[in-house]
Amino acid sequence: DPLEFRRDMLKLDRLKACLVLAAEKSGWGTPLPAGHGRGIACFAGYGSYAAHVIELSVEGKKIKLHRAVCIVDCGTAVNPKGVEAQMQGACTDGLSTALRAAITINNGSVVENSWPDFQWMTFDAMPKVEVFIVPSNEGPGGMGEPGYPSVPPAVANAVFAATGKRVRKF
């Protein structure tokens, strides 16, 4: 089980707690319809800890996102609404770069010139994003980056759970 594997390998108690809470909040281990999968991943950095569970379905080569559960332990959340917004934005960024946005090279030149050239997630493609902030009396950690790194691997793990196949490129 991906949750048990990660939980048993982790040495950081706060990261492990985020992972376990993500599993709990997402209903990890409960049955899903055929073609659906959940993926889990976690990250520690910048004095903060985060975990994500992404739930999606796959039909042919089409991925539909259903739910994103985001857990963060950033120590004392000085501005909880700001923390929530950072996690939502980081989740959107992670889903976009995992599934849509790309930097491509044609004849030795980058094709994309600026932000409008990237296929970012649109409202209709976004899943329900749920953010849970771990209550803490620890000193505040960073909140710009910690919500991003575990999203793409959670997506890849969810695709594997749904299809039984490892996908390296979408």
Keywords:
globular, 4 helices, 170 residues, 6 strands, alpha+beta
Protein model, in words:
It is a single chain. The protein is an alpha+beta fold and 170 residues long. It is built from four helices and six strands. It has helices at 2-9, 13-26, 80-99, 151-163, and strands at 36-45, 48-59, 62-73, 105-106, 109-110, 128-133. The strands form two sheets. Strands 1-2-3-6 form a four-stranded mixed β-sheet, with helices on both faces. Strand 4 and strand 5 form a beta hairpin. Helix 3 crosses helix 4. The model has no long low-confidence stretch (mean pLDDT 94).
What is the makeup of the main sheet? 4 strands, mixed
Poorly predicted regions are: none
Radius of gyration: 16 Å
First-to-last CA distance: 24 Å
Give the overall average pLDDT.
Answer: 94
Proportion of residues in β-strands:
25-35%
* Coarse morphology: globular
Structural class computed from helices and strand pairing: alpha+beta
SS elements, strand count = 6
Order of helices and strands: HHEEEHEEEH
Q: Count of helical segments?
A: 4
**In which range does the helix fraction lie?**
25-40%
Strand arrangement within the widest β-sheet reads: 1-2-3-6
